[in-house]
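>> Question from a student workshop board

For tomorrow's exercise we were told to take the sequence and the ligand below, predict the bound structure, and bring the output to class. My setup keeps failing. Could a helper post the expected result so I can at least see what it should look like? The ligand is magnesium ion.
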Amino acid sequence: MTSMKILIVDDSITIRRIITNALKTVGFPDTMEASNGKDALEKLTNANVDFIITDWNMPEMNGLDFIKQVRANPIYSALPILMITTRGTEHDVIEALQAKVNSYIVKPFTPQELKEKIEGILKTVQINTV
Amino acid sequence: MNQQELDGILQKAAELKVFCEYGERTVPVLDEIASFVREISPAIEDLRAVVEVSMVNIPKAADQLGRVTQATEQASTDILNTLDRMVATLDEVITSVASGMISSDLGAATKKMAAIVKSLVDKSGWDEDIVKLAEAWDIHLQSMRMSGPTSNLERLLKDLQSDCTEIMMALQVQDITQQHIGAVMGTIQAVAEGLQQLTTGFFSTSSAEALPPTPSMPVQFEQENVGEAERKKMVEALLSKARAGQI
Ligand SMILES: [Mg+2]
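>> Workshop helper replied:
Here is what the output should look like for this input. Compare the format with yours to find the bug.
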């Protein structure tokens, strides 16, 4: 179990609940939710978030624009970001990577996949900061 | 009549000749156009009927797709609520089983015995035989947990819990289908817009209905229709490229 706070950004309430529950089963019980990029930026200012999981297709502010805003803000720019989306073309993945997402999952995913991705990101983030 | 006036008449006669020659050539073309219009006018009438029906049906289709999305979202929420309750109940039962409380008689007796053994150890000042008894009791308790019916029950309950998680994960299909429906609605809307332009600019029909609502975000069909495993492989390949600094 870890006390790392994870912000889940997705416009689908079903997906937010699924990610929350999946995170709980793999040892990350401390989560909070936002329904789009704009909402997530507000949540970031009010809570100590350690890790972001974001969708791409969302109203108001999509996931890609949200990532760009996070990366452009010196306070949050180093936050690890995992994108979980239905968008699975090569072009999509490259665009997300160019926006500096740490890792990428195409829906549907399993709790185990989620765990491995998060741990993989945390490992590289730790290596980079050493 | 002077020469100048004569020249003017000749000039007009020449112009008239040119006009007549032009007419001779254009009249057959105009005849052909007229017969073409006569031929296609029933087809245009048919097309008008199709467009009029479509302008009524397209918003209905979009509305129905919207309702499908709403219904599946509601169903997913209901299933998730039930699963949450099941997981919580299973948690309680697993805790009870693990602490031996499932069989209240056996649980009470075991607890009583454990307390007695503990107090014996304390009272005996760690007498060697009593300590041996305590150790034996401990092993007995462990073997009871591992081999008894409760440990089997605990495993079954945990299996049920992981089945609940699997059902929950399968509900991702709701979001995935919702996005595909969104893409279809986007296409329908583009067709509807084209038809509306046609109706206002060509047929000027009065039955043009309101267009279906624009999807709340730009959605698109996946350009590469590959399987899940291949897609994941492609993502992994790109991620390692990015790690190597090649993206
Ligand atoms: Mg979405």
